[in-house]
Amino acid sequence: MLDLATLISNVCDLMETEKEYWYRGHSKKSYKLIPTVFRPLNKEGTQFYDESKLLAEFVRRHPEAMRDHSSTIELLTYAQHYGLPTRLLDWTQNLLVAIFFCCKEHQSEDGYLYILQPPYYEKKTLSFHESLVNSISPEDVLELILNESEFDTLDKVIKKLNINGVPYADFKDMSDTELSHWAFAQKSFLIQSCEKDITHWWVRSSLCAYKPFLINERLVAQKGCFTSHSGKYIKGVSTLNAIDIENEPGESPIVSKIEIRASSKVNILKQLEICGIDEATLFPELEYQTRSIKEQCVDYL
Question: How high is the mean pLDDT of the chain?
Answer without folding.
Answer: 79
